Amino acid sequence: MAYTYSLEKDQPNYIVDPLKFALWLFILTVIMVFGGLTSAFIVQRGMVPADQQLIFDLPAILWPNLMLILFSSVTLMVGVRSLQGDRPWLPMLAFGMTFVLGLLFLRGQWQAFLELANSGLPLVDRSRADNAVSHFYVMTGLHGIHIVAALLVLLVGMWRLGRALVLGRPYQQYRFVLTAIFWHFLGVLWVYLFVFMIAQLSEEGAGAMFQRAFGF
Amino acid sequence: MSDATSHATTGAGTLSAVGHHDDHHGHHHGNFWTTYVFSTDHKVIAKQFLITGIIMAIIGIGMSTLFRLQLAFPDTSFAILEALLGKWAPDGKLDPNFYLSLVTMHGTFMVFFVLTAGLSGTFSNFLIPLQIGARDMASGFMNMLSYWFFFASSVIMVSSLFVETGPAGGGWTIYPPLSALPQAMPGSGMGMTLWLVAMTLFIASSLLGSINYITTVMNLRTQGMTFDRLPLTIWAFFLTAVIGVLSFPVLFSAALLLMFDRLLGTSFYLSDIFIGGELLHYQGGSPILFQHLFWFLGHPEVYIVLLPALGISSEVISVHARKPIFGYKAMIGSMVGIAFLSFIVWAHHMFVTGMNPFLGTVFMLFTLVIAVPSAIKAFNYITTLWKGNIRFTPPMLFAIGLVSLFITGGITGIFLGNAALDIPLHDTYFVTAHFHLVMGSASAFGLFAGVYHWFPKMFGRMMNKRLGYIHFWLTFTSLYLVFFPMHFMGLGGVARHYWSQSAFTFMEVFMPLQGFITIAAIIGFFGQFIFLYNFFSSIFIGKKASLNPWQANTLEWTTPRVPGHGNWPGDIPHVYRWPYDYSKPGVKEDYLPQHIPDAEIEYEEGFPKPATMPTPATPAQKPEVKEEAED
Ligand code: HEM
Ligand SMILES: [Cu+2]
Predict the structure, then answer these.
(1) What is the tens place of the pLDDT at every residue in B484-510?
(2) Residue with the nearest Cα to atom 30 of ligand 1?
(3) B156 is in which domain, residue-wise?
(4) Is-contact B317 B396, C-beta < 8 A?
(5) Ligand 1 neighbourhood includes B245 CB (under 6 angstroms)
(6) Residue A46 — pLDDT band, cuts 50, 70, 90?
(7) Are B548 and B453 in contact (CB under 8 A)?
(8) What's the CATH number where A115 sits?
(9) Angstrom distance (rounded) from CA B364 to CA B351
């Protein structure tokens, strides 16, 4: 016998919106992954005698990269804010800019990799007893993979938004809110990693590196 | 508590709405694929986890009987080994490398695939929506993904049994260098790579599941289902998921660095290594770093395995003893305490790695503190049973058996937690005995108790009681016969993971005991076929279950005999009390379900009717009776 089930939404005890809550839990798992990696770094660093620890000048391009990703958070925020406004193509423009900034960031990170490898600090170097550079590649690379994933999500969102605009249909604003939360998080994560690397690896300090990057 | 959240205004589908949308279609135009295979219904997914877990258990336990044969009779030739394993058992004796691979895969299958995914995956999925009063998980889609990641992971792990060089052989803890250097031994080759791939998928599956469980418990409880009215099962699944979300990512970090070492040649875990007389130029790495990262997951993992079983037994014991669970809040508190402490004790697995004795003492202290909440739980089980009106049904026997195994195995944990005692006992059969009793057996008993108890809700039929009794006694006695003697072997210094002990005089004296253990293990193994027969035949020919066969209080028994999508045909029941009102004085029946409002309680004749009347002179009133929920 078939039952007829009520598909009406019941009023559950929402504390926060479930989707947003799940996203924060996911962010928590990413934090744990990087927490594990940074503690691995610290443990290995501690195994090398202080006077033999590898320090060097981090690639200067990391500074402009930092600016790129922070700026992309701003454009994404502008996009999300303007979704409610009456200029329907403005959010599209802002998301597009975010996307391009994200790609530029990835390209910059890749250049940092190349620069580092060419300066004699590749991922694998068995003549060194200090793994710090390898850790740098792993953490930066894993962060980059998250950026790629977030860009894909953004792209799908833009595709749906564009389709809705062309067909004159309502669209789901909410997914952009979630994308934005994740994107901002990735920005903050990069700030953390950047500061961490400078503190641990850099010979010159953030200010000198900034000067090297921008020439002032 | 009705706050219209932002999703309503932004017009987005919430997770639950998405799930319902799919259900809607599945229900009306569902075909075989969407109903039974790519289903988003939590009950179907739970059964998928259960069946996959059972298959993995058959393989995993089967492997253990094979290497038990080898351990007990190293010089005997078994035709069956050669027939089953071919080149891995020349002349009917296990190849030493393959012995290591079998032990590794046995541990991996049982810890992760059976007692993590099979247990949490089954019961968290099945019970969370049913017991908190929700139509489904927060996200049916994520739930489905979680199962299929698990399925893919299982397929890869099983297929690694068939690769040329054999499956992974470095132990379920995959310590480097054996896991990091493909050329180290046969079990370090392709099998190890597949192990890492499979575990990555497993981690993804576990995280998707856990995120969903937490979100569902937080947000989709029915009216009146406050946190202090949640069944202890739900508390246990919830905390298990929290532990999972915090610890599995760190295993991913560990595995990621391991993959770099394996595939790209970095030296995170490697340093100064010779293989076959040749120096490998790895520098600066440390296998101990891996152990830290691994056990940061590994110890919480043992509680991921145990907590759901403890939750299930709390529920089962209360229902079948017809008594409120003793110390409900203390049970919750001790589970929270265990969950927290489980993150700061990992180095008790590493006392012999040469750690600073001061650090060792710190970890020893935290480790021994875990015994406190564990003991609270054990005493609460016993006091719940005390003077209960016990119904010795199969689920109840398994739940009581769990308590016994938990105590026996937990006590040896206290031995091992003492760094000074652990140094001689580490990596002996004493450890094997400890964790097989407290983790393996106790959790398996939780699984069995859960299956026997909720089978009527899963399949609408009862399992055969008599077969259940035979299964229980065979399993219970064989487990004790197998694992209890191992303590003495461990105290005698017999090392675990040795292919043959006949080469060492001090170990050789234990050979007759090894034979005894193997025979007990084989009897226990065949005992499980009784369960398998009972399980699968009862799905079709079991006695039809009544709506509430155990006369339990929780919400799942208010659904139809076999609930369909959405679980309740009409409105979701509201909740007016905690789930453990059994044998409440004055109430007509010996149970008082959560969804009965105070005004509808039937009292014994002649009993003054105090519960709903706010008269000051009612000393008999129990403190648990809450005012109606705040809605
Ligand atoms: C009273 C609480 C407990 C204490 C003090 C304790 C202590 C220990 C210690 C010190 C070890 C390391 C032994 C060694 O390798 O030398 C150990 C191993 C182990 N324990 Fe416990 N334990 C406790 C409860 C549990 C529980 C509840 C579980 C699981 C549900 C568990 C599962 C394990 C496992 C799986 C291992 C061995 C892992 C391996 O080396 O393969 N323990 N325990
Ligand atoms: Cu432990």
Answers:
(1) 999 999 999 999 999 888 778 888 899
(2) B439
(3) 36-541
(4) yes
(5) no
(6) confident
(7) no
(8) 1.20.120.80
(9) 9
